[in-house]
Amino acid sequence: MTPPPQGASTAQATTRRGFLGLVGLTAAAGVLSGCSPPGTPRPGTGGATAAAGDQLKALTPTFVPFDAIKPDLPGTRSTLPGVPDISGGFSSYPADPVPALTRKAGRGGSYKAMTPLWGPPPPGLAANSYFQAVNADIGATLEFQITDGVTYVDKAVARLAARDIPDLMCIPNWEIDKMADFNKAVDQAFEDLTPYLQGDRVKAYPLLANIPTAAWQWSVWNGRLMGVPYPTEPFPYGLLYRKDLFDRHGWNQNPKTADELYRLGKEITDAKAKRWAFGDIHEMAWPIFKVPQEWRYEGGKLVHKYETPEWELMLEWMRKLFAEELIHPSVAGSKGANEKELIGAGQILVYRDGLGGWKELLQQHRPKNPGFALGVFPVFAHDGGTPIMYHNTAAGLFTFVRKGTPKAQVEELLSILDWCAAPYGTKEYELSNYGVKGRHFTLGSDGVPELTDLGTKEVAYTYGFLGGRPLYVDWPFPDATKANLAWQNATFPYIEKTPFDGIRIQRPGKYAGLQVPTEDKFTDIMRGRRPVSDARQIAAEWRRDGGDEARAFYLKVLRDNGRA
């Protein structure tokens, strides 16, 4: 799974206003079961609540591991509250995948599912033999409404506002964070899954029971289990680069300061050759400049990232990259440029993406270009000092069931999601990810699945989004698998501890709604449309419009949990 760039289209303001129509004048949602109230509700809190993970265990499904497949490459066991493990990986593809289930998952129903995709969409169900084969194995018909991942938040908000909700709807957590009223809308749009999955009830769905408990804790809204989570690896993203082209040109693959990265960009960029160093890497510039992940607690005060001197340093550096045209013009001139296409074409050489983007690009390009390779820069600090790296929460995407779905259909949909949650090394996983052997993929001389021309055309990551599973590095590329795990294990000691680690927080509505418009203003600074000196004014506007209210809420969360 690949987090997209931050930002939203200009249409988002309109769709966000429409989103308010869904939640209407409903009272603020209740506090999560078993936790202390966050205080007297204030304007703009928007149903905000908080609870430490151990307070949510009564709501979550019983964990029952699926032990038929075990990784042979080690990961890292996390001892940081709320921070996922590195689950390890596999050095080779299993020669004989095992069946995960012994019966059909579906009962003949027909459903629609909305999922994101960061890449070209495949043919629809009627013209796609991959979809047809998977549906036949499931025993039900899923028709995907595939939506561009870059603009997914706009489409999701618009559909929620119009009450045009499919049977299954995937929404990434980083998009939920931008939705000002999701805390209330979730109750009106989606089914409460607590009666189906809480405790031992999940054992009817053995592969959903294999999802780590921490991920389920992040699936609770308003005291109810509302979605099926997709667990995350610890890291939201890294700086990926075209290793094959770096090797060919002898470029530096281990920059140790922001200035070294800048100078690398100058060396790479050649507009006449249609080659630029970077996509919009500003989110990775945040940890490089040691900007806090969101809040920093110091001296008894909470300081937001927008208020730090590190934030201004980052803005100045990013502004230089844009001003000197080291960032691809399609990226600099829009919020919707497809950076995966650009790095695949060699028009950009470095971009910020989730580690899942590495796998997607290899699957797309290796069949026709066996030498295609990516790497990820080791983490570094702008001044050459000890680096920091951000971490994910335990779940990064959720699949919701449309509210009002009859009980029998909810059970069938959960059974389908159970099939979709089959882990690496199973027959169901193989079919979901590669299609039919001999038709959509073959095994290469190294035993690794290789998509055929038909598979490249028809197979898209769709069913995989619907069912979470422990996040082994399950890539069919041994070189990249080992490089990925080496980077993750080496980076784990640099994870920045945050004041709220392990606390499940539903963000105050006004605060969530501030993120996109505020960061649009900072984008104007980076792209030279406003002076850097405006950064403090923008931060003051953020405080006035809800940032200070949010600070009071978050400070109370710290005090309620004995952290302040």
Automatic annotation (TrEMBL):
Keywords: Signal, Transport. The keyword Signal applies. It is found in: Cell envelope. The keyword Cell inner membrane does not apply. It holds the Pfam family SBP_bac_8. It comes from the Bacteria. Belongs to the bacterial solute-binding protein 1 family. This is Aldouronate transport system substrate-binding protein.
